[in-house]
Amino acid sequence: MIGKSPIGDWVESAVNFLTVHAEGFFEGLSTILEAVVNSFTWMFQLGPFWMLIAILTIIAFIVGRWSLALLTGIGLLMIVWLGYWEATILTLSLVLTSTVLSILIGVPLGILSGTINGVSKVLRPLMDFMQTMPAFVYLLPAVILFGLGIVPGIIASVIFAVPPTIRLTDLGIRQVPQDMTEAANSFGSTPWQRLWKVQLPIALPTLMAGVNQTIMLSLSMVVIASMIGAQGVGTEVYRAVTQLKIGQGFEAGLAVVLLAIILDRFSQRLIKSNHARH
Amino acid sequence: MSILSVRGATKIFGTQEKQALELLKQGWSREKLAKEKQATVAVNQVSFDVQEGEIFVIMGLSGSGKSTLVRMFNRLIEPTSGEIWIKGQDVAKLNSSSLRQMRRQSIGMVFQKFALFPHRSVLENAAYGLEVQGVRKSERMEKAMEALRLVGLEGWEQKRPDELSGGMQQRVGLARALANDPDILLMDEAFSALDPLIRRDMQDELLDLQQKMKKTIIFITHDLDEALRIGDRIALLKDGEVIQLGTPEEMLMNPADDYVERFVEGVDLSKVLTAAHIMRRPETISVDRGPRVALQLMRDIGISSLFVVDRNKKLLGVVTGELASEGARRNQSLQEVMITDELPLVSPDVVMNDLFALSGTAKLPIAVVNADGRLLGAIVRGAVLGALAGHVPNADNQAAPASVQAEGAHESELPLTITAEGGVER
């Protein structure tokens, strides 16, 4: 007979260790992230709701002409009509915060992984792990380290959503034709110059596809994170589910879907306009 | 003066480069190394010197190691061993910042598939090398513009590379390399991706540019015709080794071994042989002689015309038997009777292909003269066709157009002249 595995115990003691010894770090991080989310929410609520919708619609028109503008305008109005405007603003702030964080972490890691084979060998299985481990599992250590609220939600969604950005940045860097890096080298570029002036611009469309996926994944995770107190539309969905309110659940779910479609089309559009400039 | 000296340059690909190198030095064959050590000897102990201002062609089939070799010159590929001297520095031993400096200032590179940066305009592409050096924007744009003008791309500077045709894209590649004003230009199969006609144009333009800019060009190609057209000297590479190095003519006339011979077999001679190859020693007379001397000389040699030259062997005209005897009757000087208009003249590097028309219509022998008007030789009727049939009069004395162009390189070919004493000497 094989005894019960001790892995669970190890993870628990690791988390406990961190709680005790790195409390200051986690508190500081917590404060920063909360401030970021709050400033997003504050920014979105500067004016009345129709003003924000108007501004976003205009931006949509600039980025993607009529189809995107219509989708954005009507979609957001519909969210208002469904009664989830406030909650959606909060969710959007969470998604944006975790996306920004994912880009800040994911792009440099992706560059390293695309440049150094050793890094990619370590990161690859780690990312497989991060993506296939059921998302709920991240919530527990996040709660223990950061307490209930929006911050563990963000942390969990970053862990869940960062892999596509890393993977596709890696891919983008690797896909830069060899003769272009050779050309950059042959004219005496420093490694930084090569990265900024040649590799990253050429990898950008691929990288952006990764960011698009990261946005979608963090939205889905933010909804789940409502279980640990990350406020937003997810909270409404969660409440409806626990109270077996089918209609309310559907409406809240619809708001999530609308937000998801708008975010997706927006980021897709940005990728395409990037392509067009090439 | 040699600007690039390669000494024993060797590149082995494999996990144990150094060990494989030792084994190679102990006399292991390429095959044995590949089989037992999984080491590929791409370049094997290559040594040569490239002279300043020449177009040095490295030719070989794919897999012969030519691209690896050229990448060792600017260390895009690290040599396993050997020395590469450029301007008094061994590139193989430079640290990374000196290497960068060398790449920025001394070596430009042009790539087979252009390797232009798609996100940059044509102008920004051409300015790239200056940009990484930190040259001010206005200055680098100006220099890049100048380089674009040089390759004939004025008016296209704001386009993206993918809006240009292949030939134009490679001009951008050339401009990008020239904008830095490097001493050495490495061209890795630079024209191989282009259509044949555009390729010819680019070759011609490269030769023009070379005339103007006097850069040292190291040109990689697998195409013998291309090598013969543009190369001052050619190094033929096989299995990573130089198996023959010489002028295009030497390659054709004296192939070093069967491999070279097979390589050069299919060459169209009419595109390769030049006036210098098929010309003969001209029969001449000094202009201060009289018509009677000319007549006597013609009778002695048994020909119907003579080239009239001055003391410096400069061609002044042609005198025929009829004109000479008429001049003798009227007591005129040679200067007065000789034909000076519409003499059939060619320079020594004109290829035979371009000689056909002239040799078909010319009534007088064709005079081969250099840029200063000095008479180098004569092409008599039948010589052109004879050469095509395989009879090359100068094959044995290795007359090469490149060297004939050089001042006084071939004293033995100076025209036969009558000296003041009336004797005939060379």
Automatic annotation (TrEMBL), chain A:
Record's keyword annotation contains Flavoprotein: no
Broad class of where this protein is predominantly found: membrane
GO cellular component, one term: ATP-binding cassette (ABC) transporter complex
Localization, UniProt: Cell membrane; Membrane
Gene Ontology MF terms: amine transmembrane transporter activity; carnitine transmembrane transporter activity
Pfam families documented for this protein: BPD_transp_1 (PF00528)
Protein origin, superkingdom: Bacteria
SUPFAM superfamilies linked: MetI-like
GO terms of biological process kind: choline transport; glycine betaine transport
All copies of domain ABC transmembrane type-1, residue ranges: 88-267
Membrane topology: Multi-pass membrane protein
Gene3D superfamilies linked: MetI-like (1.10.3720.10)
Transmembrane residue ranges: 49-82, 89-116, 136-162, 215-234
Protein keywords: Cell membrane, Membrane, Transmembrane, Transmembrane helix, Transport
Family indicated by similarity: Belongs to the binding-protein-dependent transport system permease family.
Entries under PANTHER family matching the protein: GLYCINE BETAINE/PROLINE BETAINE TRANSPORT SYSTEM PERMEASE PROTEIN PROW, GLYCINE BETAINE_PROLINE BETAINE TRANSPORT SYSTEM PERMEASE PROTEIN PROW
Protein name, entry field: Glycine betaine/proline transport system permease protein
Natural source organism: Paenibacillus aquistagni
Lineage: Bacteria, Bacillati, Bacillota, Bacilli, Bacillales
Automatic annotation (TrEMBL), chain B:
UniProt keyword annotation of ATP-binding present: yes
Catalysed reactions, as listed in the record: a quaternary ammonium(out) + ATP + H2O = a quaternary ammonium(in) + ADP + phosphate + H(+)
Enzyme class: translocase
Cellular localisation: Cell inner membrane
Range of residues in the leader sequence: none
Keyword Membrane: yes
Residue ranges of every copy of the CBS domain listed in the record: 278-334
Keywords from the named record: Amino-acid transport, ATP-binding, CBS domain, Cell inner membrane, Cell membrane, Membrane, Nucleotide-binding, Transport
GO CC list: plasma membrane
Chain ranges of the ABC transporter domain: 28-264
InterPro entries reported in the protein's UniProt record: AAA+_ATPase, ABC_osmolyte_uptake_ATP-bind, ABC_transporter-like_ATP-bd, ABC_transporter-like_CS, CBS_dom, CBS_dom_sf, Gly-betaine_transp_ATP-bd, P-loop_NTPase
Annotated NCBIfam families: proV
Quaternary structure, from the entry: The complex is probably composed of two ATP-binding proteins, two transmembrane proteins and a solute-binding protein.
Record protein name field: Quaternary amine transport ATP-binding protein
